[in-house]
Inverse folding.
C-alpha cells in the first residue's frame, strides 16, 4: 500500500478559499465540538483524506 508523502514544512500559509455557507457553519460547529480552530479542523480533515487515515 502506498502512503502519500506530505512534506514536513510546518510553516503556516494564509489561503483564501470559497465554500458554501452551510458547509462552513457545519465545519465551524464540528471544530468547536472538538475544541479546534477552523484551520486546525480543515488541516486535519485534509490530512486524513490525503493519507487515507481514519
Amino acid at each position: 500500500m502506498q502512503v502519500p508523502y506530505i512534506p514536513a514544512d510546518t510553516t503556516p500559509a494564509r489561503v483564501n478559499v470559497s465554500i458554501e455557507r452551510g458547509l462552513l457553519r457545519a465545519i465551524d460547529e464540528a471544530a468547536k465540538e472538538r475544541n479546534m480552530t477552523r484551520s486546525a479542523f480543515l488541516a486535519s480533515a485534509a490530512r486524513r483524506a490525503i493519507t487515507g487515515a481514519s
Observations:
- Residues 21-51 form one domain.
- The longest helix spans residues 38-51.
